[in-house]
Amino acid sequence: MVVVNDGRDEIRNKLKEIISQMKVGTDGTTPSKTDTALGNAVYTDSTSESDGGIGVAEFSIRLGSGDGNGNTLKEVGTFDSTGTLITRSTHAGIDKDSGFELLTEAKLEVKE
Predict the structure, then answer these.
(1) H or E element in which residue 5 lies
(2) Measuring CA to CA, which residue among 78, 48, 56, 49 is closest to residue 9?
(3) Which residues of 77-102 are buried (b: 16+ CB within 10 A; e: fewer)?
(4) How far apart are CA 40 and CA 74, in angstroms?
(5) Domain segments of the chain as ranges
């Protein structure tokens, strides 16, 4: 079965209605389908969102120069308004300090 382009866009639009927050944290444990939270969240913010093309929703938050400092950031998650974890990913550690701002992005794609 193929999810047609209009269907992919409908699902993308629903994701944009559902996801309202992103969190970053310091736990680099491999994500699991049974995760219900980040391992160690240290910063939360409301998302900015955009269309990334057919079936693609993009979400982002910006950590300012005063946000998340003194942490090695290794994980990011998207959440709904009730705090339910929707997606979680890990990455190489970023040592956050006041010398820079950090744009954190999540790109979710509905495949055909």
Answers:
(1) helix 5-18
(2) 56
(3) bbbeeeeeebbbebeeebebeeeeeb
(4) 10
(5) 5-109
- Minimal CA–CA distance to 22: which of 100, 96, 102, 97? 102
Q: Count the residues in the chain.
A: 112
For residue 112, what pLDDT band results from cuts at 50, 70 and 90? Answer: confident
pLDDT in tens, 2-32: 999 999 999 999 999 999 999 999 999 999 9
| 21 Cβ contact list (under 8 Å, min separation 6) | 44, 45, 46, 47, 78, 79, 80, 81, 83
* The three-state (H, E, C) secondary structure of 7-63, written as one string: HHHHHHHHHHHHEEEEEEECCCCCCCCCCCCCCCEEEEEECEEEECCCCEEEEEEEE
